[in-house]
Design brief:
Strand order of the largest sheet: 1-2-3-25-24-23
Shape: globular
Number of strands: 25
Largest sheet: 6 strands, antiparallel
Number of domains: 1
CATH topology: Neuraminidase
InterPro entries: 6-blade_b-propeller_TolB-like (IPR011042), Glc/Sorbosone_DH (IPR012938), Quinoprot_gluc/sorb_DH_b-prop (IPR011041)
Protein name: Glucose/sorbosone dehydrogenase family protein
CATH class: Mainly Beta
């Protein structure tokens, strides 16, 4: 595990690693060739016309299920055609950063059509991050048997920091990442609150018997880890099966974490971030013996969103690398890992000027991106 000292050596001037683009980009072109450190890549536009796309999931027949933050879910064909919105979704609180968020196929989707999705659920007091399960009728463009299986136990006012990514573990349990709702950051350290947590639930919403806080008095049994700010990236290590997440820092201090059960990840007591406007210190400092140090951190913030381990054949030189999208810095980060440590960072595709909301590996072994700023789905092919 990387020490806090090692993390402090994170290069802050990532611009030195920005990729060189082989063609000028005054306007968007459907196919753009980009040179990276290890490969020439063709960035292809697959689809356009989406509004604030947030997440994508690949269906068994090659089509793509996409969420749009205003509260719509669509099917996208291989040639880029968008379906009408899928009917039957619950009402969402589509304000600020809230709305319809992540979507994931159930482990046996081909047999039962089960999907899960996260969203900002309106309540009488405000809103909260919730997760629902449903049966997806692809022919009828409708979801059936919608059932909310989880909701944060607090529903404060405000429009920021909902999380939320969904990842199925190998045992069929579901990890859900949850934001701290911004003004309520101190609750990230409280084990009687879902704010600023990763939770682990069964697909029926119950807490697995081996969750780390299941037997602790006063703690919520769903909690897997705590001390998080706003987690918008999550992926399983294809070799170890362990969960990795990343989260937004305030002003600096975006974190990449190996997210283990029962661990405290520090926010807002231990952080590399600073207060907005004043730049003053937050909490006690950047390290403490009982707090898990990030495996990587970004200062200045890149605003990470979406994450995927690459295991495909299209880019063999990237196998085992971790890819992270960035909103503020409008790029994709490639991280090389060795024994759970980041040993190299490359910043790619910055010249495209696209807010990358999600990163996924497709069944074709290629990387797929959601361009939030342009409402597009992009694919990376070998040039």
């Amino acid at each position: 595990m990387a020490t806090a000292k090692a993390v402090r050596r994170t290069p802050l001037l990532g611009a030195l690693l920005l990729t060189a683009v082989l063609v000028p980009l005054p306007v968007w072109a459907r196919d753009v060739i980009v040179r990276t450190e290890t490969a020439s890549v063709k960035v292809s536009e697959v689809a356009r016309g989406l509004e604030n796309p947030w997440s994508l999931a690949f269906l068994p027949d090659g089509r793509i299920l996409v969420t749009e933050r205003p509260g719509r879910m669509r099917i996208v064909t291989a040639d880029g055609a968008l379906s009408a919105p899928i009917a039957g979704l619950p009402e969402v609180h589509a304000q600020g950063q809230g709305g319809l968020l992540d979507v994931a196929l159930g482990p046996r989707f081909a047999e039962d059509g089960l999907i899960v999705f996260s969203y900002a659920e309106p309540t009488a007091r405000g809103a909260r991050t919730a997760v629902a399960r449903a049966r997806l009728d692809l022919d009828g463009l409708r979801v059936h048997a919608v059932q909310r299986i989880f909701a944060q136990n607090e529903d404060p006012s405000g429009s920021h920091h909902w999380g939320s990514r969904l990842v199925f573990a190998p045992d069929g349990s579901l990890f859900v990442t949850l934001g701290d709702r911004y003004h309520f950051r101190d609750r990230a350290q409280a084990l009687d609150s879902h704010l600023g947590k990763v939770v682990r639930i069964a697909v029926d919403g119950s807490a697995p018997a081996d969750n780390p806080f299941r037997a602790r008095a006063g703690a919520l049994p769903e909690i897997w880890s705590y001390g998080h700010r706003n987690l918008q990236g999550a992926a399983l290590d294809p070799q170890s099966g362990e969960l990795w997440t990343h989260e937004h820092g305030p002003q600096g201090g975006d974190e990449l974490n190996l997210t283990r059960g029962g661990r405290n990840y520090g926010w807002p007591v231990i952080t590399y971030g600073r207060e907005y406007v004043t730049g003053s210190k937050i909490g006690e400092g950047t390290e403490r013996t009982d707090v898990e140090a990030p495996r990587w951190q970004w200062t200045p913030s890149i605003a990470p969103s979406g994450m995927a381990f690459y295991t495909g054949e299209a880019f063999p030189q990237w196998r085992g690398n971790l890819f992270v999208g960035a909103l503020k810095h409008q790029l994709v980060v490639r991280l090389v890992l060795e024994e759970g440590k980041v040993v190299h960072e490359e910043r790619m595709l910055s010249a495209l000027g696209r807010r990358i909301r999600d990163v996924r590996q497709g069944p074709d072994g290629k990387l797929w991106l959601l361009d939030e700023s342009g409402g597009r789905i992009l694919r990376l092919d070998p040039a």
